[in-house]
Design a protein that fits this description.
This protein is of the alpha+beta class and about 325 residues long. The protein contains eight helices and 20 strands.
Length: about 325
């Protein structure tokens, strides 16, 4: 096992953001319900971790300053540890312990294996090849063969842990990503909302679809267009809005998942947080203009950049909760 100072180990666990907790009477409280109570200025319940019963606290939705002229970024509500507490061993929110359990879970050694320095290596080529074989068209979502199903399940568990963490530090310290002979940095593989623009640029620099994981919040479901012979439904996530430094121009980075199985996509409700893994591609950008709301001499230009995924298997989408 990679040597990490005990203090660093505990700090890594403190970065976990929870989506639910229990009250002192055992009632389950989800982040969305707690936010509504907060907005209504109602008293919030005393909260405990739903995995190990240590005290936790609700952090309401808030904004933080943007970077490089970007507008403030909205930070969704979450639940975190109370100061001076730690998740107990065996709790799924004890990130280092949970990661070690996942790495020792017996996944396909050709996909996830231990290497000489005590780290583990995750080989994305196995899944990339399987996804290419399964991308013949937007037919009904199917189950993968047992081997690929196991690889997708192991990856989904790891991505859920990453989605709950504040950074790549924990996983990067223990797990190397590899695509064929190339090492892939976690920063070039996992993208949250604030880095959708970086994901879009990376796709633009590649001549092929890339295996990546994006974290998003479901904003809408769009029914198939009448002229669409495949009947594709789209799950759309909340976009990243970004100022460009150019007067009266705004950029939007939109993430969408398209598939013919409407019931499957709609099973992820509005407001749900999901990790989407697969072979992403850069969609077409579109430009729209409208008069400035207060100055008729000016025109506001909005440029929308698309990131698109066409999944083949159910486990490519994972609910984070």
């Amino acid at each position: 096992m990679v040597a990490i100072e005990t203090k660093q180990w505990l700090q890594m666990s403190r970065g976990i953001k929870m989506r639910k907790a229990v009250g002192t009477h055992g009632t389950l409280h989800r982040v969305g319900d707690l936010q509504k109570r907060h907005d209504a200025q109602q008293t919030l319940p005393t909260l405990l971790c739903d995995g190990c019963n240590v005290p936790v606290r609700f952090v309401p939705e808030h904004s933080r300053p943007g970077v490089d002229r970007a507008p403030p970024l909205l930070v969704p509500a979450y639940i975190a540890l109370q100061k001076g507490t730690e998740h107990l061993p065996g709790c799924r929110y004890n990130a280092p312990g949970h990661l070690q359990a996942l790495l020792a879970s017996g996944a396909d050694p050709e996909f996830l294996s231990a290497v000489d320095d005590g780290r583990h290596e995750l080989r994305l080529l196995v899944l990339q090849q399987a996804l290419k074989r399964g991308s013949a068209g937007p037919t009904a979502v199917t189950a993968a063969d047992p081997r690929i199903e196991g690889c997708l399940r192991a990856l989904a568990d790891l991505l859920t842990l990453r989605a709950m963490d504040e950074s790549d530090a924990l996983l990067a310290a223990h797990l190397t990503l590899r695509l064929g002979k190339k090492k892939v940095d976690w920063a070039n593989f996992f993208y949250a909302l604030d880095r959708y623009d970086e994901a879009w640029e990376r796709l633009g620099a590649s001549s092929s679809e890339l295996p990546m994981a994006l974290l998003g919040t479901v904003r809408s479901h769009r029914s198939p267009q009448p002229a669409d012979p495949h009947g594709v439904t789209y799950l759309n996530c909340a976009p990243k809005y970004q100022q460009t430094g150019v007067v009266d121009r705004r950029d939007f980075f939109e993430v969408s998942v398209g598939h013919a199985d409407a019931a499957w996509l709609r099973s992820y409700p509005l407001g749900a947080e999901i990790v989407m893994f697969g072979l992403w591609r850069q969609g077409r950008s579109s430009t729209a203009s409208r008069p400035h709301p207060t100055d008729p001499r000016r025109t506001i230009t909005s440029v929308t950049h698309k990131l698109a995924l066409r999944p083949s298997f159910r486990r490519q989408l994972t609910l984070v909760e």
